[in-house]
Specification:
The complex is a heterodimer. Chain A is α/β, with parallel strands linked by helices. Chain A is built from 9 helices and 12 strands. In chain A, strands 5-6-7-3-8-9 form a 6-stranded mixed β-sheet, sandwiched between helices. In chain A, strands 2-1-4 form a 3-stranded antiparallel β-sheet, covered by helices on one side. In chain A, strand 8 and strand 9 form a beta hairpin. In chain A, helix 3 crosses helix 4. Chain A is globular. By secondary structure, chain B is mostly helical. Chain B has one domain. Chain B has a two-stranded antiparallel ribbon. In chain B, strand 1 and strand 2 form a beta hairpin. In chain B, helix 3 packs antiparallel against helix 5. The radius of gyration of chain B is 19 Å and the shape is globular. The mean pLDDT of chain B is 90. The chains are: A alpha/beta, B mainly alpha. Chain B: It is a multi-pass membrane protein. Chain B: It holds the Pfam family ABC2_membrane. Chain B: Belongs to the ABC-2 integral membrane protein family.
Chain lengths: 281, 259
């Protein structure tokens, strides 16, 4: 079986609000999959059902071949979870917490190595309450990976990271992915999805609107380019073109060399994403 | 299996010892109360039994209730609020390990607290340690049953409130009211009859009475509501509360507030 996660017709409602409305999802083994979607689109509900935290109303769900609603300790040992805003152990040190969690797993990684991987070695002997927001997040990640999971859930993992910490975190994710870990990531940062994910899925209103590699989402690679330049009067003119190279050549001829203020752009992942969730809303 | 429980217990104890407020609150509070009350109320209830001796037994029972009931009824919702429980549920840790850790912590604190309270009471206020094996045994089972009942009720009570703040606000008055009506601050038989009847439903009154049978002279039994220590009833009611607490825990415990 090649699917790490397989979901068909997933439904979940709270009182009379439908959070997930018939969602289908396949995540292949060894893949990094990013779930994008606005707040309230059903991302966290979906992920927490896959993690075994929430019950579903309807649908087929298989995670590592088991139903997460019924799976036991052996299944949990194969899954790593980094939740949004998880509880801290204020009075314990980083090393104590990581060591303690390592003890829950049958084939845990070396705690010191995990601490080094998330870049907390210097803080290993500090109480966790003295950590900054970004450092706490790294500790969350350390606890998520200390059991050497086959499948890692990351719910908005880099919230609160400075740019440098985010780059380091991306390295860690690539590292884990290249070692064969399947990763399901939710994020609000489109650059993060674009950098890390093999495929992205966009959730809007409880449904998966589209799944594609980041470069192909919303037929982005086939979308017309926008060519913009400054006219002789100084105004900016912009045109969508299927053949931007020809247009640029024509402009070059018209201006007799350099085209002032020339830009050629394709829709960014953000443009495509905003259009998609806009259409649905 | 024992290893997991030990590890979890050690972690709980370490966290407890490192948070100064909880150490002061649970350990020093009963001691301070004894010092204050013993200095104010210096009369004898009956010849040979001072109010201090009466009060000290009540404070030991209160200490057990604080450690078992109050601390868990407040601490567990805080941990649930902050997602500690959710995080633990995401690991292969068997759920019972979490409770085992709490029980180990409660037992350890209770033992230390009893030793401290006895040391203060014997050293400063003339409480006499039990002189017979039988009384030590009674001390043992009343403590064990009472602490178990309080611990289970504390875990059960942790599901009453949805928030950490709400938990403090509900558990504290419950504990305080029980202390007033169960004969900790006042001689139980001096309380209005209806208050005695209400108190007799709950464990604290019976824990106090059981401990009085251990530390006060046998003659004092005549001063009790039934004219005797009623140890059989003490055991029965505390055991019943263990059963009620356990059923409530199993039926109502919530790892998170999500559905």
């Amino acid at each position: 079986m090649d699917s790490a996660i397989s979901v068909h017709g997933l439904r979940k409602a709270y009182a009379d609000v439908t959070a997930v409305a018939g969602l289908d999802l396949e995540v292949r083994k060894g893949e990094v999959f990013a779930l994008l979607g606005p707040n309230g689109a059903g991302k966290t509900t979906t992920v927490e059902i896959l993690e075994g935290y929430r019950r579903r109303d309807a649908g087929e769900v298989r995670v590592l071949g088991e139903d997460p609603g019924k799976a036991g300790a052996a299944w949990r040992a194969r899954v790593g979870i980094v939740l949004q805003g998880t509880g801290e152990f204020d009075e314990l040190t980083v090393a104590e917490v990581v060591r303690h969690f390592a003890g829950f797993y049958p084939t845990a990684d070396d705690p010191d190595r995990v601490i080094a991987r998330v870049g907390l070695t210097e803080k290993a002997r500090s109480r966790t309450r003295t950590l900054s927001g970004g450092q706490k997040r790294r500790l969350d990640v350390a606890l998520g990976i200390v059991g050497r999971p086959e499948l890692l859930f990351l719910d908005e993992p880099t919230t609160g990271f400075d740019p440098e910490a985010r780059r380091e975190f991306w390295e860690l994710i690539r590292d884990l992915a290249s070692a064969g870990t399947t990763i399901l990531l939710t994020t609000h940062y489109l650059d993060e999805a674009e950098t890390l994910a093999d495929r992205v899925g966009v959730i809007a209103r409880g449904e998966l609107v589209e799944v594609a590699p980041p470069s192909r989402l919303g037929d982005r690679h086939r979308a017309p380019a926008t060519v913009a330049w400054r006219t002789a009067e100084g105004a900016v003119e912009a045109t969508e073109s299927e053949t931007p190279t020809a247009l640029v050549a024509e402009l070059a001829a018209r201006f007799g060399g350099e085209v002032p203020g020339l830009t050629v752009t394709r829709p960014t992942l953000e443009d495509v994403y905003l259009r998609m969730i806009g259409e649905k809303a | 299996m024992i290893g997991l429980a030990q590890r979890q217990g050690a972690l709980e104890i370490r966290q407890f010892l490192r948070s100064r407020e909880s150490v002061v609150f649970t350990m020093a509070f009963p001691v301070i109360m004894i010092l204050i009350f013993a200095s104010i109320f210096t009369w004898d209830i009956t010849p040979g039994v001072s109010f201090t001796q009466y009060f000290v037994t009540g404070m030991i029972a209160t200490g057990l209730m604080t450690v078992g009931f109050q601390s868990l009824a407040i601490q567990i919702p805080i941990e649930r609020d902050r997602g500690v429980l959710k995080r633990l549920r995401g690991t292969p840790m068997p759920p019972w390990v979490y409770f085992a850790g709490k029980v180990v912590m409660v037992a350890a604190i209770a033992v230390v607290e009893i030793v401290v309270l006895l040391a203060v009471s014997v050293g400063l206020f003339g409480l006499e340690l039990p002189s017979t094996v039988g009384k030590w045994l009674t001390f043992g089972w009343v403590t064990l049953l009472g602490l178990t009942a309080c611990t289970l009720c504390g875990i059960a009570f942790s599901s009453v409130s949805r928030t950490a703040r709400g938990a403090t606000a509900t558990a504290t008055p419950v504990a305080l009211i029980l202390q007033f009506i169960s004969g900790v601050f006042f001689v139980f038989t001096d309380l209005p009859a209806w208050m005695q009847q209400v108190a007799a439903v709950f464990p604290l009154k019976w824990m106090c009475q059981g401990l009085r049978s251990v530390f006060l002279p046998d003659a004092f039994a005549a001063q009790e509501p039934a004219g005797s220590w009623e140890l059989g009833k003490v055991a029965l009611i505390l055991a019943a509360w263990c059963a009620i607490g356990l059923v409530l825990c199993l039926r109502t415990f919530r790892w998170s507030l999500d559905r």
